[in-house]
From TrEMBL:
<dbReference type="Pfam" id="PF01451">
    <property type="entry name" value="LMWPc"/>
</dbReference>
<feature type="domain" description="Phosphotyrosine protein phosphatase I">
    <location>
        <begin position="2"/>
        <end position="151"/>
    </location>
</feature>
<feature type="active site">
    <location>
        <position position="14"/>
    </location>
</feature>
<protein>
    <recommendedName>
        <fullName>protein-tyrosine-phosphatase</fullName>
        <ecNumber>3.1.3.48</ecNumber>
    </recommendedName>
</protein>
<keyword id="KW-0904">Protein phosphatase</keyword>
<dbReference type="InterPro" id="IPR023485">
    <property type="entry name" value="Ptyr_pPase"/>
</dbReference>
<dbReference type="InterPro" id="IPR050438">
    <property type="entry name" value="LMW_PTPase"/>
</dbReference>
<feature type="active site" description="Nucleophile">
    <location>
        <position position="8"/>
    </location>
</feature>
<comment type="similarity">
    <text>Belongs to the low molecular weight phosphotyrosine protein phosphatase family.</text>
</comment>
<dbReference type="InterPro" id="IPR017867">
    <property type="entry name" value="Tyr_phospatase_low_mol_wt"/>
</dbReference>
<feature type="active site" description="Proton donor">
    <location>
        <position position="127"/>
    </location>
</feature>
<keyword id="KW-0378">Hydrolase</keyword>
<dbReference type="GO" id="GO:0004725">
    <property type="term" value="F:protein tyrosine phosphatase activity"/>
</dbReference>
<dbReference type="InterPro" id="IPR036196">
    <property type="entry name" value="Ptyr_pPase_sf"/>
</dbReference>
Length: 160
């Protein structure tokens, strides 16, 4: 099983978008049983009294426009233990990567990457919390997730 953790700052916009876009791509490819896909935050800003906030309504609406549900998703913070648990720890921007490396205490196994690096770009996925542009964020997430799935298929990471 391939275990993937998508990470952003608050786990209410970009990383849940990546989580559910990737789940859709994997489902469409009939590979669901071969994956565990989740998302988390580097901060605790969206977690109150131990309960995470749901996906931000405009992010949820953007996913719904593409026929993707994220119902029931709640923010959670990434932990040091996640490094051992997951095969791929994928951040949305450079700040996420720096924070992940701090939380994990490094990346000795080379598991940490930026999502768009799988599409051959070191570009960050802009945070729609600040830009208000959920459509562009969705397009970037789709590009990154599609390239990530292709990477896994081309590099024999998925038993067919």
């Amino acid at each position: 099983m391939i275990k993937v953790l998508f990470v952003c700052h608050g786990n209410i916009c970009r990383s849940p978008m990546a989580e559910f876009v990737m789940k859709k791509l994997v489902s469409d490819a009939r590979l669901t049983a071969r994956f565990q896909i989740v998302s988390a935050a580097t901060s605790t800003e969206e977690i109150w009294n131990g309960i995470g906030n749901p996906v931000y309504p405009p992010a949820k609406a953007e996913l719904a426009r593409h026929g993707i549900s994220c119902e029931g998703k709640r923010a959670r913070q990434v932990t040091r233990a996640d490094y051992a648990e997951y095969d791929y720890l994928i951040g949305m921007d450079g700040a996420n990567i720096r924070n992940m490396l701090r939380i994990f205490g490094g990346d000795p196994e080379g598991k940490v990457a930026k999502l768009l690096s799988y599409a051959g770009s070191e570009r960050d996925i802009s945070d729609p919390w600040y830009t208000g542009d959920f459509g562009t964020t969705y397009d970037d997430v789709l590009e990154g997730c599609t390239a990530f799935l292709e990477y896994l298929q081309q590099n024999s990471k998925i038993d067919t």
